[in-house]
Structures are given as structure tokens and as C-alpha cells.
Amino acid sequence: MKRLFLFVSLLVLSKFSAQAWATEDQYIQKFAKYAVEEMEKYKIPASITLAQGLLETGGGQSRLAQEGKNHFGIKCKEEWTGKTMKHTDDAPNECFRVYDDPRQSYEDHSIFLSTRKYYANLFNLNMKDYKAWAHGLKKAGYATNPRYASILISKIEKYRLYEYDDTSSKEVLYAVLKMYPDLKDDRTFMAQLEPSKMVSKKTKDQVTVEVPYKQTSYAQQQKRVERIKTKAEILNSILIKTHPNDGLRYIVIPEDTNVKFIADKFRVSESRLIKWNELQSDVLKKNDIVFLESKNSSGNTAIYKAESGEDMHDIAQKFGIKLNKLYAKNRMDEGQKPSAGQLIYLIDKKPRN
């Protein structure tokens, strides 16, 4: 009887073990492409993103992942204006973000890491050094578990997730197929690899392309469609940069757009973007600098020589300084413009004549 009980117990345990393995493999097969897409946009190793997703969701089985499409356990924070759900984590009934699609969760994770100062040092690391990233995340306080780094590394090495750090969004599905050859019998997966069966991707943050009608030739109209599509794609590929002034996070606008588009893409309120960047309207022009956090009171260099046509707002954006502080440092009235060649003080106050 005891032997029978032991045999059944081992059978059950082995079954659960197999299910856990299958669940994590299936998670990788489904979400590797998202991790690689984020790596290309935000320079976060795909192996790290996937390992974090595996760990945080228990292979996609957690309540947050199932009900809230939240794959990284990101809590609401004060800037979140989207849907929420209550979940017990470090404390009872904490507020967590809810997404319409897992891809949104993946991008929000990238934005979360790339826009917070305490993670800034991660982006100085080699993008293929997953061990350094794992330890860097732990050191920056991403998780309270003292074994967090070693757990991530274990996941990466167990499933060879480091191989996704060497692929691209165009090749990632082939990398998945190489890792899991049995997927050749999965018609849904294989359809993604066959152009004749492929369906164009439509994600939440893609721009709807509307082409104004003009009575013209079909060829000319098609050229206009492609030009507008290209603009939409350019806007969707904006990368967050780190400013020399204390690592402030900012972007450079690649094509004319508006504050709402940037606010929606980076999940920051329009009012904050307008306040942080001292904007007079919601129109953003190509090559405008837009900060995703409040600027500093001083610059990182002492003096700057104003160029022809620049105003004080241009200089404030160039050096990541609050506009009112820049006026004060240079003993200038609000709205006053500098002359070409004028020395603009960025750290100390301009000496009195």
C-alpha cells in the first residue's frame, strides 16, 4: 500500500513538473517576439525581459497576467491614468495597472525602466551581458528577493534565452522555431512565417493612416499613402534618450505630431508634458526636444554661446533646464530673447555688470 501511494505521488509530482515546464516553454514561444521588439526600441536585453516575464507571471499563469494582462507586476503609481485592479502582493489589495493587451504591458515595462533615474546605470551596460543586467536590476531595487538576480540568470540559462539577444524582430520567430522544432506542426505558428498567410500587425500605439482624397492618378495616390505610412512608422519608432544633464530622459520628435500622441505612447499625462517642457501649445515640430520628466534647475556645463535665431526656450530644452531658472540665472525678463553670441549662464548666476 505504501509503495502504491509512493508510486502515485511520484506520478502526480512528475505530471505537475512537466506541466510547469510546458507552461514556461509556451510562454517563451508566445512572447519572445515582444521581448525582441522591445530590445530593438529600448535597448533592454530580450533575455532579461523574457526572464522577468516568466518569473513575474509564473509562466503566464498569474492572476495579474490572466486578468490584467500585467506581465511585470507594475503597480499603479501616481502617473497611471489607465485601468486598475486590486491584488495582494507586498501588502493587501495593492493597486496594479491593467492593460488591454500583453504587448502594452511589455512596452510599459520598457518605459518604466528607461524613464526612472535609479535604472539609468543599466543602460550603460553591455546589452548582451545578461548577468550584469540581472545584478543591476537587483542593485537598483527592482525586487526585494535577495536571490532575484540568480533566479533571472537561472531562467535565462535554463531556456537559453540569451539566444534572443542575438536576433531581430524580423528573425525572432525563426529563432523560436529553431529552439522548438515541434512548432513546425503548429499551423497557427507556421502561418506567421508564411507571407501568404501573414496578417499585418495592428497594435494599440500604431497610427491610423488617413489619406485625404485628391483627384489624381492611382500611382500618385499610392505614393502619398506610402509617404503617410512612413511618417506613422517613424513616429512609432521614437527612442528614449539619456540627457548629459543628470541622466534626464527625453526624446527628439522625428516628425510633426502633437502632445497627445506622445502622452499616449509613453503613458504620461498631457498636462505634465506641457508643464515639464513649458509648451505654449500642443503642437510638436520635427526635431523638438521633449522631456519625459521634470527638468533640472541648472545645466551640466557652465556657459553657452547663443546661436542666431535661438530663444531661451530652445536653450532650456537643449540643456535640460527649467525655463524660469534660466531667465533668473541670466537676469533676463520672461520672453526676452538672447542676441547671437550672447553668453548664457547655465549653472551660476550671471555676474552683475
Q: What is the first-to-last residue Cα distance?
A: 100 Å
Based on CA inertia axes, which overall geometry fits? elongated
Tally the helices: 13
Please state how the strands of the largest beta sheet are arranged side by side: 3-4-7
Q: Tell me the helix content.
A: 40-55%
Structural class by SSE content: mainly alpha
Largest sheet composition = 3 strands, antiparallel
Radius of gyration: 25 Å
Mean pLDDT across all amino acids: 82
Number of strands: 9
Q: Give the H and E element order.
A: HHHEEHHHHHHEEEHHEEEHHE
Signal peptide: 1-20
Organism: Chryseobacterium vrystaatense
InterPro entries: Glycosyl_Hydrolase_73 (IPR051056), LysM (IPR018392), LysM_dom_sf (IPR036779), MGlyc_endo_b_GlcNAc-like_dom (IPR002901)
Protein name: Peptidoglycan hydrolase
Written overview of the protein:
- The protein contains 13 helices and nine strands.
- Helices cover about 45% and strands about 10% of the residues.
- The protein has a three-stranded antiparallel beta sheet with strand order 3-4-7, with no helix packed on it.
- By secondary structure, the protein is mainly alpha-helical.
- Helix 1 (about 1-40) crosses helix 2 and helix 1 (about 1-40) packs across helix 4.
- A hairpin with a 6-residue loop joins strand 3 and strand 4.
List keywords for this structure.
353 residues; mainly alpha; 3-stranded antiparallel β-sheet; two-stranded antiparallel ribbon; 13 helices; 9 strands; 44% helix; 8% strand; disordered N terminus
